[in-house]
UniProtKB/TrEMBL annotation, chains A, B:
Domain Non-reducing end beta-L-arabinofuranosidase-like GH127 middle, residue spans: 430-523
Pfam families, alphabetized: Beta-AFase-like_GH127_cat, Glyco_hydro127C, Glyco_hydro127M
Domain of life: Bacteria
Organism: Curtobacterium flaccumfaciens
Name of the molecule in the record: Glycoside hydrolase family 127 protein
The Non-reducing end beta-L-arabinofuranosidase-like GH127 C-terminal domain, residue ranges: 527-632
Residue ranges of every copy of the Non-reducing end beta-L-arabinofuranosidase-like GH127 catalytic domain listed in the record: 30-419
Example GO biological process: carbohydrate metabolic process
InterPro entries: 6-hairpin_glycosidase_sf, Beta-AFase-like, Beta-AFase-like_GH127_C, Beta-AFase-like_GH127_cat, Beta-AFase-like_GH127_middle
Amino acid sequence: MPITNRTAPRNGPVLPSSSLLRPLPLGALRLAGGYWGEWQDRNAHTILQHCEDWMERIGWIGNFDAAAAGEPFTHSGIEFVDSEVYKLLEAMAWELGRSADPDLASRYERLVRRVAAAQSPDGYLHTSFGRPGQPARWSNFEWGHELYSMGHLIQAAVAQIRTAGSGPLVDVAVRVADHLVAVFGADGRQAVCGHPEIEPALVELGRATGDHRYTELARLFVERRGHGLLKPIEFGQEYFQDELPFREADVMRGHAVRALYLAAGAVDVAVETGDAELLRAAELQWERTVARRTYLTGAMGSHHQDESFGADFELPSDREYGETCAAIASNMLSWRLLLQTGDAKYADLIERTLYNAVMVAPREDGRAFFYANTLHQRVEGTVPPEDEVSARALASLRAPWFEVSCCPTNLARTLASVESVFATMTEHGLQLHQYGDYDIDVDLPGGGTAGFEVRSGWPFNGEVIVTATKSSETPLELRLRVPAWATTAELDTPDGHHRVAGGTSIAVDRIFNRGDRVTLTVPNRARITHPDPRIDALRGTVAIERGPLVYALESTDLGRAINDVVLLDEVALQDDGPDDVRVGIAVREAQTGSPLPYGAAVTETTFIDTVRLVPYSTWGNRGPSTMRVFLPTE
Amino acid sequence: MPITNRTAPRNGPVLPSSSLLRPLPLGALRLAGGYWGEWQDRNAHTILQHCEDWMERIGWIGNFDAAAAGEPFTHSGIEFVDSEVYKLLEAMAWELGRSADPDLASRYERLVRRVAAAQSPDGYLHTSFGRPGQPARWSNFEWGHELYSMGHLIQAAVAQIRTAGSGPLVDVAVRVADHLVAVFGADGRQAVCGHPEIEPALVELGRATGDHRYTELARLFVERRGHGLLKPIEFGQEYFQDELPFREADVMRGHAVRALYLAAGAVDVAVETGDAELLRAAELQWERTVARRTYLTGAMGSHHQDESFGADFELPSDREYGETCAAIASNMLSWRLLLQTGDAKYADLIERTLYNAVMVAPREDGRAFFYANTLHQRVEGTVPPEDEVSARALASLRAPWFEVSCCPTNLARTLASVESVFATMTEHGLQLHQYGDYDIDVDLPGGGTAGFEVRSGWPFNGEVIVTATKSSETPLELRLRVPAWATTAELDTPDGHHRVAGGTSIAVDRIFNRGDRVTLTVPNRARITHPDPRIDALRGTVAIERGPLVYALESTDLGRAINDVVLLDEVALQDDGPDDVRVGIAVREAQTGSPLPYGAAVTETTFIDTVRLVPYSTWGNRGPSTMRVFLPTE
């Protein structure tokens, strides 16, 4: 039974007006150190400033000042760099909602003022269009990213509403949204943006303000797409999902970030309008895309050329694109579907994607990022200069900033609000989807209170200890996800011991007294993972995983290139802790008896060694290396 | 011992001033039907007209008229479409050198007049640069393709010299070349073109005219490259081979056509200047590139994104780019190295590349072409409209014309002169490198005459019958290549019977009398080919080849998609002739027990059938299909 979510001024990024599971209010779950606590700190103290400094230095923030001044100016950066400033503002807002750091608050306010000053009197706001010497407004829906950029502005304003209730950025965003309603409403211009994003943004603004015109405009944008309103481009209409209406598609295709943002917006529209068919289309697309077009890390996007999904089972490791933003977008979709359905498979994918496809992006110091994320680095990357803007396509290590730099700011807003996907509540229940180290204190919708301390050492350890910090007063159903990667798990409660299967969830339903403890023990040991044999690129290989972490072999540890290795014996997998997972490796030299690498027969010679693997998300932190996740077997 | 090649007015595209093997003069080898005779006819009667009609219709020829008129005009097509007109002119010249068709001759002369009229008084000739409203001359070496286009003009003029001795296009090209010498000579502008091509063109013009200034300018262009004269682009300096001097590189990298044209030019310069180090660099690059970066078909280029070589053993079937022009360029290089070294491995690669990577391009009617050539078509292509220009990147069947249409005209010039790589001569010898059906009649450099009829039914049959049509008067060494794909072969001569190994050559040295017959019998049966296990994309697969032909499985024959197939039993390969090669196939359905295509174990169910394979070069001729060359094994 879906529950109705009253407008909650303090909340995370997504708050459907009804859902099976309800997001916790902002502040009800607080990280207490551990993996995510440390990364959220690094985001607050390093990444936010890093993004701001770069965008100040290369003029992306200055674009707003120049636009406000009213004189013709040379715009810095590609046409959608406004959106990077907005994503930073969103990240800052989430962080301010938690910490109220005065320095951050004043930086945020200054930045909002500079953005606000560039708004046109009619509400339009974009620094690349509509001024003398610039293309006209709405002259290029295919590539202009106008609605996309304004979508991110609206998302940033929603974060201000949800953390502060109101503020000057909210006023700016409402004027933007009102302008869009006037231009693109039912009787207005029949158009969609080449890059979806305005759709979820408008629904969320509708939810946060109670103004249904915004939701209705989002609905129009979702329904209009798929009818060829966008002009054909080299990559075809499917590049921007305009070849088929969303509700008729059964798999994602085209540009991965676009497809995933659109799906998130479609779910939002479906929920607000009670459109079960539209919601079902999103579930089907998720299901088939995850089954056939998703990497082991949860990454999506097989082609560099058009940043797109490949065909079914087209999942090359070496040419994986796997854009960081697509992983973030995948979690946006999975979270929305988890709220609606309660199905643990969505939480499983969020876990897999967060630890591997998202967190591979930042360098350990938070000052450089991957944009594309390969599972097989064939040649050592180059170290990008710390003070130059990098192109995204080059084989390089993590770079401090990019010409198209969507990923660092997207990561910043994700880290600033990451705990929002950890737990949910129902009338009399609390659901723990992601583990880590955190404290929960929340009043449940049906009455009663939930206070718990969760400690787990996740993702490196497998024991989740949940201790009640309050009496629940009334019976409370505490539900814990048992990860799909666990073949089995053990649950110890005040009422006894249970054995549970992986890929499910288990509930403890009782009146909790302060000090009551529930322990979920998941065997977190290195394991072998086999790919579906229909994945051509992975035939004859296996991967090593440990808990939610995918592991990788780096040349740094092997002492030579990793392209020619063979995993010697699956049984020889050794696990002496998360930092000491080892395998037996042979290095293969082949002879085909031909100048070409093809022959009637192939003979091989091998050289043998034992070598340590590292969590995939940390690869490249020790300097240039070659790396592979899937290891050929004998 | 290299021999010196006197200037020969009638010759094919390449005539080094010295070489171990000497090209036959134009007309000394004439096709007599068979595979190549039919395709050369189709080229003469269909493809040439097809190219001319398209370029007339979409204004690429009209650019020259507009440029000649002197008024500002809107240029049609991308900035290097001049080169397509030049490649057509080159193809027409080779065809006229053989057939003297009056209609073709008058079309050729009209086209030359229109080109000539656009030349500037100082010799510069390009329709995209230097006029009011156009970019300035030499303002964009990275992408402008000015020298590239003029290179193709010069090649077309060389074809006029070699077929007709002289003509108006030669005058135009000499004025162009003199202008380039003035602008880019030793004391001139220190620059190179982003796309090599001017280098082999200038050497050939130097050879054909005896003017060494052109060769010297080519030498300067080769030597200047690799020192960062081109501005950095997103794909890096290696995209246009400007990150490392040619003589220091040991493998090809970057844009495949550029790398191969450059290598061809470097060999030409090395030969004309006696630069053994430069020649050795080209041999090393060929060797390593063929061993690690070449497809089974001979195709080169692993990435769509930048049309580039991949890393070693990065040879995905499904994302193969394998541009038709790169295959043609590979043969340009192999032919040059064959002439210098006499090593049969170069002739072997020419054979493999011609039958598979080049001849997959044209549709069987010669009115549509592949640009990129995949070895694994995962989804059925769309049928491009017959009257519209196609984008090159879309998954489609062969298209009549492209926005960037380098491949059809390149194929036209290749087919018009294809027999030039079939045989060579030495002082007292004749070497047959490629088989087919043709007649040779030539006076040898050391005296004596060679007259032979060659009949083979190649590539479908394996018996090559060489019959003397003249007495050789003096002893003559007739040398026959034994293809590397043959494990063994039989040679019958008037002097007896011999058994010979594949990948070698065998000579018959005697005075030939009219009617003397030499028969080489090569077992032309379907065979299994194994890929080097270091090719990740091909692990656990095999291909089927028959003689020089690579075979493919098409969904048209299987009656369902081919992505999930498994080759059931290698022994079950049946060969009842070139049109009836069959294998046993299972279709696999896999279960991982997870929403993702990865799991602790994988179970499979299969469905079994027997199915016919087709020569890879003919795939797609029966309409949209899915296709794969490498078949997974059990």
